[in-house]
Specification:
Lipocalin_ApoD, Lipocalin_CS, Lipocalin/cytosolic fatty-acid binding domain-containing protein, Lipocalin, Lipocln_cytosolic_FA-bd_dom
Length: 181
């Protein structure tokens, strides 16, 4: 599968809003305002903070991304999270392949590796122009993804900010998501 080559990690850093994705067991089924914030670490890895809001409460998980092959110019990354988030014990690693990114690094199509089980459309803003969205959907379709599985993620404008948002302190959102709740 074709992936982006020469991805500028420094330009890729920052916040990305999830515009649409394939439903997955590791994200709450009714999540809103889902976003990812990437920060470049001194050792060249990337700190990953994924956040979503469910029933007015913020759920989050942190992980680390790194190049799958440090000698390759392809934008094939691995992302490692530890579960459960409230007591990180078990490492879970997945593929994060940048399939398309615009030249201004404002919107991106990301796949979860060769299996085509995962797909995300991300944007620097909470909303993406329909024309661009449709272009990315067609790109995914051309790459062999079943785009009928794409689900748009509700996003508020402006998005929730700050630490005053109630948090899911029970840490059970990821267990519920395993059962499709």
């Amino acid at each position: 599968m074709e992936v982006v080559t020469g991805l500028d990690l420094e330009r890729y850093m920052g916040r990305w809003y999830q515009i649409a994705s394939f439903p997955s067991f590791f994200q709450p089924k009714n999540g809103e305002n889902t976003r990812a914030t990437y920060t470049l670490n001194e050792n060249g890895t990337v700190h990953v903070l994924n956040e979503t809001f469910t029933n007015g409460k913020k759920d989050s998980i942190e992980g680390t991304a790194y190049k799958a092959n440090p000698n390759s110019d392809e934008a094939k990354l691995k992302v490692k999270f530890y579960l459960p988030p409230f007591l990180p014990i078990f490492p879970v690693t997945g593929d994060y392949w940048v399939l398309y990114i615009d030249e201004d690094y404002q919107y991106v199509l990301v796949g979860g590796g060769p299996t085509k089980k995962y797909l995300w459309i991300l944007c620097r803003q909470t909303h993406l122009d329909d024309e661009i969205y449709n272009f990315l959907v067609e790109k995914a379709k051309d790459l062999g993804y079943d785009v009928s599985k794409l689900r748009k993620t509700p996003q508020s404008d402006p998005p929730p900010e700050g630490d005053d948002t109630p948090k899911d302190t029970k840490g059970i959102w990821w267990i519920k998501s395993l059962f499709g709740k």
